[in-house]
Amino acid sequence: MRRVEHVMGFPVSLRIDDEGVPGQAADAVFAWLREVDARFSPFRADSEVSRLDRGETFEPSDDLREVLGLCAEYRTATGGAFDARLPGRRLDPCAVVKGWSVQRAAELLTAAGARRFCLNAGGDVVAAGGPWRVGIRHPEHADRLCTVLEITDAAVATSARYERGDHIIDGRTGRPATGLLSLTVVAATLTEADAAATAAFALGREGVTWAAARPGCAVFAVDADRRVLRSPGLPVTRTGRRAAA
Questions:
Q1: Which is nearest to 229 in space by CA: 146, 148, 141, 134?
Q2: What distance, in Å, lies between the first and last C-alpha atoms of the chain?
Q3: What's the rounded mean pLDDT across residues 29-36?
Q4: What are the chain's domains?
């Protein structure tokens, strides 16, 4: 089964290699992601996030509480470099919501009986079974790869400047984080990989060491001086080693 939809502002592709997984499983994945967009987008005036940001009185859902708890966790862990509520800006938990929601979608697939699948949300990937090969884009050349990872039952997320420019802000300074060109995290879940990648990017060069020290995380990064940095546990393929040399 293969399916692609545009959700939450980016393409989401799903590939399921198992036979007999009902089509309703894919329907549930995309329905959940559309629900998340409606409830948590800071760009929708009627979303829970926007209502909370305006100070409206209502009982936040358990999901929103979980998302805000994760935002607070990463803010503390980075000394304020990662911050979903920057001064002078609206509440924006998107850096947590994306990975968290896609990981939840993967869990829906597992519950439906899928054992080998790949869910790619705008370049961030959660995969079951394997091995799966995931290419890491060169930060300055869209038609080239820096390396190729080989993952099994894992997730990969990248934060970079090449798609949206200097959009990641260091909450400690209020200025764009420019110490890195791109940073990729491999972790057991996309919740961790995506949030850790954004948080590490906000930290700048020190974020590479910070992310690599997190339990179960491996890191590949290119800094502003074009130096390649990677942790020893990075699951690089033979092809990937040649590409990164």
A1: 146
A2: 36
A3: 98
A4: 2-244 (3.10.520.10)
Structure tokens at 59: 């009982």
149 phi, psi to nearest 5 deg = -100, 155
- Cα 19 off chain centre by: 28
Q: Is 169 in contact with 175 (CB distance < 8 Å)?
A: yes
Report if pTM > 0.85.
yes
Closest CA to 127 of 193, 32, 201: 193
Nearest CA among 241, 106, 104, 220 for reference residue 160: 220
**The two three-digit tokens of residue 75, written as one number:** 């803010």
Closest by CA to 197, choosing from 183, 216, 187, is 183
How much is the pLDDT for 201? Answer: 98
Q: Which amino acid would we find at residue 227?
A: R
- How many other C-beta atoms lie within 10 A of the C-beta of residue 178? 13
Distance CA 72, CA 77 (A): 9
